Amino acid sequence: MAASSNRQEYVVGVMTMEVEGKNSERFHRHVTQAVEVFKDAIITALGVRVVLLAFEGPHLTPTAGAYAPLDFLHIGMTEKLERDVHFMLIVTEVDLSATTFSYTLALPSQLTNVGVVSTKRLNPDFWGDREDAALTVRRLATLLLHTFGHLLNLSHARDSQNVMYNFAGVDDLSAMSYLTPAQREQMRQALPREAHERTSRNGRWRFVLHTLVRNWRSIARAVVRANPFRLATRLPTMITAALSVIIVVFFSAEIWDVGSTVELYQLVLLSAVAVLTATAVLYRTFAFGGVLGRGRVWAESTIVTGAATGLSLILTMLLLFVVFVGLTYLGTVTIFPRKLMETWPTVDPAVRTLDHVKVSLFVAALGVLAGSLGGRADSKDLVRGVLFIDEET
């Protein structure tokens, strides 16, 4: 069922994803009670509807004892569309892996409007103390509120009793109990802007264009958060493959012949094609699915996600291309023998600055193209983590 674009009611889905099935009854009881606390707090603050959902038995494989949160995120994106909710909070009973810490309790993804929460370490009995169901429920409800606050663009608070406090451990959750009137008002204002879950069955290109214009702030914020410099550091295989090709072709006579004789506008066109092609190759590798639901429905959230992913990747490819051009040009003016510049080209000597620029553009374009093929071997979780995860809590 498609969501109407003029519907005023916003729906938050809280979905359980039980993976291992241990202490199943206790897990569902804690989640149900925590959702009631979460529901009271959210309805009071925003007047939204909260629904409890379930996704039975996702077949996931742990790594070093923990599960990849992006697997849950991917499922959550699909289920959010299929179950017609604006925000999805996924609750699982297993440990979630993290890149910054040894484990994580929650990961919000504002770009996708999905948050992933783990109950694994919330009960005191995990730490060797006596089981405390009430404390576990209170911690889980706070964690749901904290994660949902991030989905509505709330920043961290300094007060350790505030729900949005940047807590360091599980014990801090017990004291986090309130939202300020200013935070509640910020959530109310952000809700219609961030709840991008309009859908369309026809007029798809008009719908896509309107979606991009309507959500340009969310897209721009996601691109800034991803940061091309940061994203480039998650592509070591691509960079290694690109530099290997650049070094080989840089010392090839044919490259100097072509690079010095081809027209500058042709090299600019080649460079543009190389960057766009590399972006397309990596997009197919790292993007999350398509934009269509099972009912041939185009969803606003997946269009926003795809646009932010594509824009982040193309800016990263442009950054790497510029770096490769700079490195190649530096090599031509510092270490490349002038005699070879004069004798390798068969038409004219390549000793002018313009010749060096053209050779650098040509070599960098080849490097980006070759590197994109190697980049497909880079870790999907690391790259997607930069693109889709706001923080590890």
UniProtKB/TrEMBL annotation:
<feature type="transmembrane region" description="Helical">
    <location>
        <begin position="356"/>
        <end position="374"/>
    </location>
</feature>
<keyword id="KW-0472">Membrane</keyword>
<feature type="transmembrane region" description="Helical">
    <location>
        <begin position="264"/>
        <end position="283"/>
    </location>
</feature>
<dbReference type="InterPro" id="IPR024079">
    <property type="entry name" value="MetalloPept_cat_dom_sf"/>
</dbReference>
<feature type="transmembrane region" description="Helical">
    <location>
        <begin position="303"/>
        <end position="336"/>
    </location>
</feature>
<keyword id="KW-1133">Transmembrane helix</keyword>
<protein>
    <submittedName>
        <fullName>Uncharacterized protein</fullName>
    </submittedName>
</protein>
<dbReference type="GO" id="GO:0008237">
    <property type="term" value="F:metallopeptidase activity"/>
</dbReference>
<keyword id="KW-0812">Transmembrane</keyword>
<feature type="transmembrane region" description="Helical">
    <location>
        <begin position="231"/>
        <end position="252"/>
    </location>
</feature>
